[in-house]
Amino acid sequence: DDDDDDDDVGDNGDVPSSNSSSVKSTLSMSWEALQKGEGQPTRWVPDHAVNNCTDCGATFWVYNRKHHCRNCGGVFCSRCSDFTVPVMKEQLRDPVRVCRCCYDKLDGPRFWRERARQAELSAAAIEDS
Question: I need a labelling partner for 61 at 20 to 30 A (CA). Which of 23, 35, 55, 110 fits?
Answer without folding.
Answer: 23
